[in-house]
Amino acid sequence: MPTRTQQQPQGCLTVLLKLIGIDLGKGQQKHPYRLRDDFLSAAELSFFRVLQQSVKEDLVICPKVRLADLFMVPQAEGSQAWRNKIDRKHVDFLLCEPATMRPRLGIELDDSSHAKQKRQERDQLVEAVFEAAQLPLLRVPATRTYSVLEITEQIHLNLAQGENSPLVEPQFHQGVPICPKCGIKMVERTASKGTRRGTRFWGCQNYPQCRETVPV
Ligand SMILES: [Zn+2]
Q1: Which residue intervals define the domain DUF2726 in the entry (predicted)?
Q2: Structure confidence by residue, pLDDT tens digits, 196-211
């Protein structure tokens, strides 16, 4: 199998200029980055292909999604500690709606490392995070082969469960609504564009991470 040779760090022009005493690279720091060959492990890639057959064009598959890009912690005392808990954690796969990229389902591929205690603690935390944010999470044990039909069924079952989350009516405190998602006071805003331009509404202080609104 042909392999790619390491790219020449210097172009022809750079070499020529160097010959006549001009060094463009002087004072410039060389960045040491190289492309990893293991973006997805063999097990992840094999499952990714099954997922592709399963969800087809209906959902977009995002591998290795950072939990901090998916979940937020509303600003409050001690919220940084909660943010730190998920700071360096990822979910193996995330399924999103194609038009809006709204997250619909997280999927964890459980290999043998999930039996280790440290990993189990991590798994429990991730499960709790998904549950708190009401995003369904599906755990699939890693195997040599998968049944596309079985995976498809499990995905649809979990998606349906996610849709059944009850709508929460906002509570008011001294006439100000409390964001039903974040539990903090909302602020009055005026729509600046769209068909509702000029309309006043209550919006969340965590906008754009939280887009909950309540009519004034
Ligand atoms: Zn909110």
Answers
A1: 39-155
A2: 889 999 999 999 999 9
79 and 136 together in one domain: yes
Q: Which residue in the block uniquely carries the two structure tokens 């038009």? A: 99
Query: In angstroms, what is the span from residue 213 Cα to ligand 1's centroid?
Result: 8
Distance 207 CA to ligand 1 centre (A): 7
Give the domain extent around 177: 167-216
Given a cut of 90, is residue 31 above it in pLDDT?
Answer: yes
pLDDT at 4 over 90: no
Structure confidence at residue 17 (pLDDT): 64
Tell me the residues surrounding ligand 1 (ion) with CB < 5 Å: 179, 181-182, 204, 206, 210, 212
Distance between Cα 74 and ligand 1 center (Å): 7
Confidence (pLDDT) at 170: 82
Q: At what angle do helices 42-55 and 148-163 cross, to 10 degrees?
A: 70
Contact predicate 26/63, CB 8 Å: no
60 and 79 assigned to the same domain: yes
DSSP secondary-structure letter at 37? S
Distance of CA 106 from the midpoint of ligand 1 (Å): 22
pLDDT tier, 189 (very low <50, low <70, confident <90, very high otherwise): very high
- Reduced to 3 states (helix: H, G, I; strand: E, B; else coil), residue 167 is coil
CB atoms within 10 A of CB 128: 12
So what's the pLDDT on residue 77?
79
